[in-house]
Amino acid sequence: MALPEIGSVAAAFTLPNQDGKSVSLADYAGRHVLIWFYPRAFGNN
Amino acid sequence: MLGITFSPTDDLKKWREEVGLTADLLCDADRSVALAYGAAESADQEKATRVTVIIGPDGTVLQAYAVDNAEAHPAEALAHIA
User: In this structure, what DSSP letter does residue B14 have?
Assistant: First the structure.
């Protein structure tokens, strides 16, 4: 699976957070965002 | 800063409190975001691949890494946004 191309427009998304509240990439417009994908909560992450 | 995984939101809440994280942790249950960002090969992949993406204020991708070494990676990523 390919990583996003540098300089391309980041894919929009809306997902529930830990409290069930929807969070969108668009909420961070005008700011830097660091997104990290990780295997799972708990265990040796 | 947003952490994305496939764990259910209840687990994310407990783990966030246990570890003391302040970032929002998001649940990508159907893997659609992971697929779009190269952190999953298929919609039935059990666990997300470690991938970090830095997005600029204009919504474009500034950096994208597949993380091979989880211990060395934070310093590398921080160096790019410093």
Answer: H
The partner residue sitting opposite A41, judged by closest CB among B12, B24, B36, is B12
**ipTM field:** 0.89
Q: Which of residues 2-41 of B touch A (CB under 8 A)?
A: 2-7, 9, 11-16, 18, 24-28, 32-41
Thinking of the domain B2-81, which architecture would CATH place it in?
3-Layer(aba) Sandwich (3.40)
b/e B44-73 (16+ beta carbons within 10 angstroms → b)? eeebbbbbbbbbbeebebbbbbebeeeeeb
Per-residue pLDDT of chain A (45 residues; tens, 9 = 90+): 689 999 999 999 999 999 999 999 999 999 999 999 999 877 654
